[in-house]
Amino acid sequence: MTLAAPGLNEQHAEEAFSRQSVVFDELYSGNTIVNYKRDRVRAHFLQYSKTSGTILELNSGTGEDALFFAQQGHKVHATDISVGMQQRLEQKVEKNKMGRLISNELCSYTQLQDLKEKGPYDHIFSNFAGLNCTGELDKVLASFSGLLKADGTVTLVVLPKFCLWEILLIFKGKFKTAFRRFFSKNGRKAHLEGTYFNCWYYNPSYITNHLKNSFDLLSIEGLCTIVPPSYLEGFAEKHPVLFRNLQRAENKLKSKWPWKFIGDYYIISLRKKHD
Asked: Are the CB atoms for 46 and 155 separated by under 8 Å?
């Protein structure tokens, strides 16, 4: 596998996620809140997806979502900049005998013009804030229309500039975490597996404004607005009744103002306009 030289920040992100790839599934597969997030994202995506459609997945990680969508009958082209993540994905595809439905390619989402498999696709999908690892999201968004069929959809899971749960950490004295999304125009340092790289935060308006000429907004949902973020480890297990109540409240309010804008993430879907 070969890859055009990425920017320095992407190189650092690739190094961090390749290092984490060997333990990624072990770290997160048993996390109750992570599983809640995955279920929410998948349900959101499936309401707009065609039966047996084709999906271009960005920052596909170890392939958990690719496997799920393939099991639903979709054909997935899973891309990632991380060599380690791609290797783990390939192992899963072989183990689950999904080679007919899942292909993969080492490619940065900032270099989608270099994709070998350009589609066009029915859907573009990106989960769990992979797109927050670039300060060139405008460049990524600009490439979407040419990769999609008529009426194709985009579903992205992105970190916004404000998170209610993080602000509440002020009361625990965690000021650095509470304010890390503020004043982040030039990126904020993230630390993973001994490697530092920058991440950026984008509100839904950034995406809708950049795509408004070619796409119509379908919906926005807040994710982990009332349910706490998954980095509050053990919360669901320590407080199972409370967790279930928070889930019910979030599922009821996920698409309402202000909840859809103040979560740890938001899920946004758009449909390509007719030419």
From this structure: no
Residue 226 binned pLDDT confidence (cut-offs 50, 70, 90) = very high
Instruction: Return the ∠ at Cα 199 (arms to 144 and 114), rounded to 5°.
Output: 35
What is the rounded CA–CA span in Å between residue 268 and residue 82? Answer: 24
Beta bridge partners of 57: 78, 125
The Cα 35–Cα 28 span in angstroms is 8
Instruction: Please state the pTM of the whole predicted model.
Output: 0.94
**Hey, what are 73's tokens?**
């009958």
Give per-residue pLDDT as tens, 159-217.
999 999 999 999 999 999 999 999 888 889 888 878 888 999 999 999 999 999 999 99
Residue type, 7: G
The H-or-E segment that residue 266 falls in is: strand 265-272
Report the C-alpha gap between 260 and 222 in whole angstroms. Answer: 4
Beta bridge partners of 272: 215
Please return the burial class of 195, using the count of CB atoms within 10 Å of its CB with bins 0-12, 13-18 and 19+.
Answer: middle
Tokens 């920040």: give the residue: 9
Q: What is the SS3 assignment for 175? A: helix
Nearest in space to 20 (alpha carbons), one of 195, 159, 189: 195
H helix or E strand, kind and range, residue 264 = none
Tokens standing for residue 219: 């919906």
Please provide the DSSP assignment of 32-99 as one string. HHHHHHHHHHHHHHHTTPPTT-EEEEES-TTSHHHHHHHHTT-EEEEEES-HHHHHHHHHHHHHTT-T
Say how far apart CA 18 and CA 169 lie, in whole Å: 30
